[in-house]
Amino acid sequence: xxxxxxxxxxxxxxxxxxxxxxxxxxxxxxxxxxxxxxxxxxxxxxxxxxxxxxxxxxxxxxxxxxxxxxxxxxxxxxxxxxxxxxxxxxxxxxxxxxxxxxxxxxxxxxxxxxxxxxxxxxxxxxxxxxxxxxxxxxxxxxxxxxxxxxxxxxxxxxxxxxxxxxxxxxxxxxxxxxxxxxxxxxxxxxxxxxxxxxxxxxxxxxxxxxxxxxxxxxxxxxxxxxxxxxxxxxxxxxxxxxxxxxxxxx
Length: 250
Ligand SMILES: O=C[C@H](O)COP(=O)(O)O
Fold this sequence. Notes:
globular, isomerase, binds glyceraldehyde-3-phosphate, about 250 residues, eight-stranded parallel β-barrel, alpha/beta, triose-phosphate isomerase activity, about 40% helix, about 15% strand, 12 helices
C-alpha cells in the first residue's frame, strides 16, 4: 500500500515571513493521517521552514540540488547542504529546469544519485511537451526520461523514488490532463520500473500527477489506480487551497 503524497512546489514564490505565515496557517490542517504532505520551497526559505514544521507531520523539500558534494560551482547548493538543514525531499528535473536551466537526463540522473548519497528522497519529474503529445510520443518521452533517471540505482533506492508525471502543456495553464489519460501514462511508467527492477519495486514507487491540480480536481486524480499523489504549483501557494489538496488526497 503506497502512502499518497501531496507536494507543493512553490517555485520562485514567497519570502521567509510569507513562508512561515503559511505554515502557521496550515499547521494541524494540512496534516491528514495516511497522506504525506511536503512543501518544496526556495532555498532561502528552507531553514525557517524546517524550524516552523517541527512537531508537525509536514515535510520540507528543496526544488533542485547540485550533483557534487561541494566544489567551485558558484550559485549552487549541494545535497550535503540540504541534508544539513534538515530537508527531506528534493525535486529533480522539473520541466522548468530542463527548459530554462539546461537540465538534461544525464544531470537528472547524477542529481538523483547525489540525493541518495545525502539521504534525501528525490521527486523526479518527467513529462512530454505539447508537440510531443500531438506527435504521439508521450510514452517514448517518459520512457527515455524515466530510464535515464533510474540508471544505476539499487533496488532499495529505486523503491523510494517519487516520480512526478507532469505533461508540460498542463503546467500553470489551467489545462489539466484528464485523470484517465494521466493514469494511463503513470501506469505505463510503473511497467517501465517493473521491467527495470521487478513488480514489488514498481509497486512501492509513488507516482504523482502534476499540472493544474487544484482542490476541485485532486480527488478525481487520487481515485485512479496508479496515481499516488500530486505535485502542485499554483494551487499550493494559498493555505486554504493547500489544506484542501491534502484533505482531497485521503
Ligand atoms: O511542480 C508543479 C507543476 O509545475 C505544476 O504547476 P501547476 O500546478 O501550477 O500547474
